[in-house]
Amino acid sequence: MPEARIDKWMWAVRIFKTRTIAAEACKKGRVSINGGAAKAARMVKPGDVVQVRKPPITYSFKVLQAIEKRISAKLVPEVMENVTPPDQYELLELSRISGFVDRAKGTGRPTKKDRRMLDDFETPQVSADDDFDFEFDF
Predict the structure, then answer these.
(1) Domains and CATH numbers, the chain
(2) N vs C: which end of the chain shows fewer Cβ within 10 Å?
(3) ∠ CA 70-81-22, rounded to 5°
């Protein structure tokens, strides 16, 4: 049965942009195979389920073929199957919605666009054209 190193496989199927980043993720404990922690040299074989934690969500992929050479994006579905549960994608969407209010530590100062979005969120927009239900006595 063919086997491949986990760092090479993740790079080959385009989960990570470089093999170095894939190996670093393994070193930091963000990658697991069938529920167990995986080092960069760990071998994967068809049928294994690889979990990759990219905060805020954990992606799950089923290995269909063990390869070590990078392939085109069109061929990726033949090599792996995305089995990430839908609730993980809901977490991703929630973090996108609330992202500009709750800035992650270390992301630096807000950009001009972020600042405007924060200001619009914090202060309600009231215009002179608003119709009020009550009369002012002058």
Answers:
(1) 1-84 (3.10.290.10), 86-124 (no CATH)
(2) C
(3) 45
User: The whole model's pTM is what?
Assistant: 0.69
Q: What are phi and psi of 83, to 5 degrees?
A: -115, 30
Partners of 51 in the beta sheet?
Answer: 32, 60
In sign, the C-alpha dihedral spanning 87, 65, 9, 49 is positive
Compute the distance between CA of residue 28 and CA of residue 30 in angstroms, rounded to an integer: 6
Only one residue has tokens 């990726």, namely 76
Q: Could you tell me the two tokens for 64?
A: 């269909």
46 and 63 in contact (C-beta within 8 Å)?
yes
In the structure encoding, which two tokens stand for residue 29, read together? 């404990």
Tokens of 42: 């760990």
Question: Each residue's pLDDT tens digit in the chain (138 positions)?
Answer: 789 999 999 999 999 999 999 999 999 999 999 999 999 999 999 999 999 998 888 999 999 999 999 999 999 999 999 999 988 888 888 777 765 555 666 777 878 888 888 888 777 666 555 565 556 665
